[in-house]
């Protein structure tokens, strides 16, 4: 009994130390699992899940991706009013990271007012990865080009200051801060300020990392992104061989206060504006359980006789007016010119 009590105190001490590092108040960790519920006068913004069973957040505090496996692993989805990290292992993954982040913003815009989005980065970032394509913004994510605002800063210090000021604004749907590498100024103090201001404004701040090492930050969730092969496009007759289907992402949970590490393959549906999880070992989507074409109302299925239907008459000769002229006959006899 004494040994278990000592072990429990050791665990709580470690949790308090982790909370200090990640910017979470230690007071939220002192109540063991099964403790009394939080007082009613505490605002939902103060309710943060640190470990399973220690605190409870309202359902609308999380952004559900639509992929049940990932949402379940994250205990409801990504926190809306928080700093979230999205990593790309290399510079070539910058497009994948940006596409996934824009997909999350598309989900946010579906649920609330269509506010503008601010994308902050240094000159080096935009020179290496470029800017999002305006036509693709509307076609894939339902974001109008004028909704996406860019702030190009000459130095990382200026980009961090801009992000901190923008994170406190409620007139923005989301704030992106794109960083390359592992700069020393992006430390616990800087990320703690971003996280606190995102909580205060009730808006998400996404920290996009290019070719950066996973380091301690105040973000509750860190996702590591890479490109996944797209499945073939689906038709009525089945998968279309050689075609390219929906954008696909391999999402790994690199850090979470509520989930264990895991990996998921998600497909973005640009028509429904939602994610779908691709099951392991399957590239094709689940078959549509609803018939594509309704059955015949004449009482007999015409499908067995479909092979006997011809587009042209099977017997008889063409009408006299359909015969080619003598000049046309000569042209038909000549070989087809290349090109």
SSE layout and pairing:
Blueprint lengths: L1 H21 L39 E2 L4 H6 L4 E2 L3 E6 L5 H18 L5 E6 H7 L4 H8 L6 E6 L2 H12 L6 E7 L7 H14 L3 E6 L10 E7 L6 E2 L2 E2 L8 E9 L6 E7 L4 E4 L48 H8 L6
Parallel strand pairs: 3-7, 3-8, 4-5, 4-6, 6-7
Antiparallel strand pairs: 1-2, 8-11, 9-10, 11-12, 12-13
Helix pairs in contact: 6-7
Low-confidence stretches: 24-55, 281-295
- SSE-based structural type: alpha/beta
What is the radius of gyration computed over CA atoms, rounded to a whole number of angstroms?
28 Å
* Proportion in β-strands: 15-25%
How many strand units? 13
Question: Which sequence of strands runs across the widest sheet?
Answer: 5-4-6-7-3-8-11-12-13
What separation lies between the terminal Cα atoms? 88 Å
Proportion in helices? 25-40%
Q: Give the mean pLDDT.
A: 77
Distinct helical segment count: 8
Question: The biggest beta sheet, please?
Answer: 9 strands, mixed
What pattern of helices and strands is seen along the backbone? Answer: HEHEEHEHHEHEHEEEEEEEH
Shape: globular
